[in-house]
Specification:
CATH superfamily of the largest domain: P-loop containing nucleotide triphosphate hydrolases
Pfam families: ABC_tran (PF00005)
Order of helices and strands: EEEHEEHEHHHEHEHEEHEHEEHEHH
GO biological process, one term: response to antibiotic
Number of domains: 2
Keywords: Antibiotic resistance, ATP-binding, Nucleotide-binding, Transport
Strand content: 25-35%
Number of strands: 14
CATH topology of the largest domain: Rossmann fold
Bound molecules: adenosine-5'-triphosphate
CATH architecture of the largest domain: 3-Layer(aba) Sandwich
Radius of gyration: 24 Å
CATH class of the largest domain: Alpha Beta
Helix content: 25-40%
Shape: elongated
Structural class: alpha/beta
Distance between the termini: 28 Å
GO molecular function: ATP binding; ATP hydrolysis activity
Oligomer: single chain
Membrane topology: Peripheral membrane protein
Length: 327
């Protein structure tokens, strides 16, 4: 449903060139729900903007729903829904009128458009606000209106760029429900998000990009499994901790990272929850008993931190870069 080959986009400002997306090769099949993750400035929005025909690639190719994003822009646009980071609705219009203008722009006949609009207003709990000017709506209400606009044409492929930003937990849960339903109906969905729990809960596949290239592409559970559990062991003395760290190296199998700091040993190891009890018994039998043991399963944020050196929580908290007009 989405295929890119060496997809690249540079922006030039004065003498400076930013390589926002660098040779992306992607293949996303019909019906997949993919979370596209990465730190601020990783190239996520730029990729989405190329796939939705808003900006052309500098080089490389991309096809969406079988149409080339440069040669067949209109056909791509007919097949997709796009909810960008900015508000799509004109501020002075009433929500319902905005939906109608956008539906008509898609070529949907008036009666069908009216029915679809009622359906979407109800799905996103917007009936009460539909007849107010958009500028009087709260950020969350506007966000829901944006999403409704993106769904007007029953898109085959839906691109959601941080759809839940600005929504309260209740509306976020409602949005997730809508996304799940669309996915069940067979819509291919690509979403960027700074909420790892959201990616974890929704997406069958997680693609992590950084500096414009893909650095991981797998299911959330396999990514977590690859990283391994964190086993923390506390000892009575630093000498015990040092001996235990060396012993753990020979006892544990698989790619294992062991660090000692003071009287604590931290171990990152695959299936650590399973191996920790045996390790504790072994250490006690060798005269260095642990006085404390904790096992933490990895979160997607741990995976993200490991891959990018940054926590996505950190990047969610930092100021999001605003995009100017395409250079
Ligand atoms: N119109 C533009 N002109 C110049 N540079 C741009 C433009 N749009 C994006 N960039 C730069 O390209 C890089 C990738 O930006 P992009 O918006 O794709 O990142 P992102 O992964 O979506 O980040 P965020 O999580 O902050 O939304 C950044 O360095 C950004 O500053």
């Amino acid at each position: 449903m989405i295929r890119t080959e060496a997809l690249t986009r540079h922006f030039t400002r004065g003498k400076k060139t930013v390589e926002a997306v660098r040779g992306l090769d992607l293949e996303i099949h019909q019906g997949e729900l993919v979370a596209f993750l990465g730190p601020n400035g990783a190239g996520k929005s730029t990729t989405l903007r190329m796939l939705t025909t808003l900006i052309p690639p500098t080089s490389g190719t991309a096809e969406v729903a079988g149409h080339d994003v440069v040669r067949s822009r209109a056909a791509v646009r007919r097949s997709i829904g796009y909810v960008g980071q900015g508000n799509a609705a004109a501020f002075v219009q009433r929500g319902r009128d905005e939906l109608m203008s956008q539906a008509r722009a898609h070529g949907i006949p008036r009666a069908a458009a009216k029915a679809r609009i009622d359906e979407l207003l109800s799905a996103f709990d917007l009936q009460e606000y539909a007849d107010r000017p958009v500028q009087t709506l709260s950020g969350g209400q506007r966000r829901r209106l944006d999403i409704a606009i993106g769904l007007l044409n029953h898109p085959e492929v839906l691109f959601l760029d941080e759809p839940s930003t600005g929504l309260d937990p209740q509306n976020r849960a409602n949005l997730q429900e809508q996304i799940r339903r669309l996915h069940e109906d067979g819509t291919t969905i690509v979403l960027t998000t700074h909420y790892l729990e959201e990616a974890d809960a929704l997406a069958g596949r997680v693609i992590v990009v950084d500096h414009g290239v893909v650095i991981a592409d797998d299911t959330a559970s396999r990514l977590k499994e690859k990283l391994g559990d964190l086993v923390l062991l506390g000892f009575g003395t630093e000498a015990d901790a040092t001996t235990a760290a060396t012993r753990a190296e020979s006892v544990l199998s698989g790619p294992t990272l062991i660090e000692r700091a003071g009287t604590q040993v931290s171990i990152r190891t695959p299936r650590g929850a399973d191996s920790a009890p045996a390790l504790a018994i072994d250490l006690a039998a060798h005269g260095t008993p642990a006085i404390r043991m904790e096992v933490h399963s990895p979160t997607l944020d741990d995976v993200f931190l490991d891959l990018t050196g940054r926590s996505l929580r950190e990047s969610a908290d930092s100021t999001t870069q605003t995009e100017g007009a395409a250079a």
